[in-house]
Sequence to fold (71 residues):
Amino acid sequence: MEQNVGSLDKNVRIVVGAVAGIVSLAVLGGQLDLPAVVSPVLGIVAIMMLGTAATGTCGLYSVLGIDTCSA
Fold:
C-alpha cells in the first residue's frame, strides 16, 4: 500500500490519537464522568489514528482516492 497521509495530516492524527487515548484512560480510571462505552470507542479511535500516522497509509483514503502526501 502506498503512503497517502501527508506530514500535516500525520501531525493532526497524532494529536487526535493522543487526546483520544488520554480521554479513554481518564474515563476508564473514573476521572471523567462519561458513559463507560466511551472508553473503548475512544481507545479504538486512538489506536487507529496513531497507527495510520505511524504507517503513513489510510485505508479509507485509498477507497476514497484521497492523497495528502506531497511526494
